[in-house]
Amino acid sequence: MGDLMGKKRQRAADGGERSLIGNAEDRDAPTTGFVYVLAFFSALGGFLFGYDTGVVSGAMLLLKKRMNLSALWQELLVSSTVGAAAVSALAGGFLNGWLGRRICILLASLIFSVGGVMLALAPDKVVLLVGRIIVGLGIGIASMTVPVYIAEVSPPHLRGQLVTVNALFITGGQFIASMVDGAFSYLSEDGWRYMLGLSVLPAVLQFLGFIFLPESPRWLLQKGQNQEALQVLRWIRGDQNVEEEYDSIKANIEEEEKEVGAGGVVLLRMLSHGPTRRALIVGCGLQMFQQLSGINTVMYYSATILQMAGVRDDKEAIWLAAATSATNFVFTLVGVWLVERVGRRKLTLGSLLGTGLSLALLAVGFLLSAQSSPPVTLHPVDPNNSTYRLYGSCEPCMLDPDCGFCFRENGTKVFESSCVPVHQASIDHAAWGRCYNKTEDIKSPIWAYNYCPTSYSWIVLMGLFLYLAFFAPGMGPMPWTVNSEIYPLWARSTGNACSAGVNWIFNVLVSLTFLHVAEYLTYYGAFFLYTGLVFLGLLFVLGCLPETRGLQLEDMENLFMGQLCSCGASSPTHNRHVHYIRVKGSNYFHSEDENSDVD
Ligand SMILES: O[C@H]1[C@H](O)[C@@H](O)[C@H](O)[C@@H](O)[C@H]1O
Question: I need a labelling partner for 487 at 20 to 30 A (CA). Which of 61, 191, 449, 534 fits?
């Protein structure tokens, strides 16, 4: 074993130098346009991920009225997709290893198409629920397969950028979904059918594309289909000399097999092998912290934040929410531009720092709003004679899930305000009284179920914008990009399945707990909590995330040879020394001390 590891490190060291030279050449080498075609068609999976998770909020506004959906059914229709994605992302690891990346992408696009047709034609809420679960199964498989496929077909110097394009497509999907929501919100009858059904178009396009596109050459080599692998490499790289890359991948697979064996449960082998165990902790940790930084809560909550800021019209709020997803999209583009320039580690660290500070600003905005919460001035008599809680100001009334704030305003001045019970069937109006009948008349009272009018909304708005500007280039895409790179081939599908599963599980956890957390800690407490979690994430990344820019996928394992979390950018590990050589502004790994043993 020790001997093998020694040879492996020798090869890695040679490979490191070779990739070092290779990379310098690579940058100047012509890249065939074909790799961009591959990235585009694969990233349609990211688009569908974003579209289907984003479109549901607008569709729900219409659906709850058309189908008379209770709060439980609304919750089910939203969360079932994310829950199904968690399950299928985990299962996707096995499918990826067994069937290959291409078949999995074809499967996902087929599932998306079937789910989309079902949703568009759904006669009742049960069919809708089944459709949402089916779509979720597609999202899970796509979310873990697409980054792996793109990473495996890309040359090292373009890999970060091309995998990050998938994340760009995710936020692009969310943005288009919000535009479609806005456009079809005027069709109150059947608008939701178009919103949910339109996803069939990109799904079919991806399916048709992948009928003609090749399997990942790395997966083919792993399955012993050497001739096909060589052909695909030639196809993707154009005229370039691919023998060296082919030999390097092949030699690596053989060594890995000798080193960690071939049979058995991959996850167990990963956990008992130091470098893959550490990579798995880093990959899952990144995905966990991505969700713990509250992105989906902030996005979801943006409509309310805008209402706080004085946007009272529902339609206007929908369009402004589209501006939020547009911001997320535009700043992901900045991430695509930066990833190969500053590297994954610096990008993630900078993003976490800015995200944490913006969350603190959001929390301060909510705190100031709570402190200047308008008082309740009217205490109307409950016609149903049921006792309802008496609150002195808007803040506690708004945090109570059974009540809402009913008020009039004159400019920024709030008057004639009361706290009344919410209607059992819909949070859109009060159970009785002045806010029972919602009219378009601007003089009629305003019903605020989950916000309070405030003059500090500009701080919250600024916090929201800065949050997206910092989160989107780094913490949004980097967990996906890094996970596609850090595992050796034999562990890549399983590693990505686990980390994507962690992402979806924490997505559900954070969304389901937000309102309860806000009820106990208030909104500012909830945002201070996210701030704390983001700073924990910052420490984690600072200590544990090595730089992967420019390295061959086959050389990544060396980054995780030492103790976990001593693997920060350039720190030496306990049993071997790692240092970086700068070539053309990039860090390249170079190994010394080949004979020491690992673990
Ligand atoms: O990377 C994506 C992206 O940031 C999305 O905006 C978010 O909704 C997802 O949860 C996340 O995984």
Answer: 534
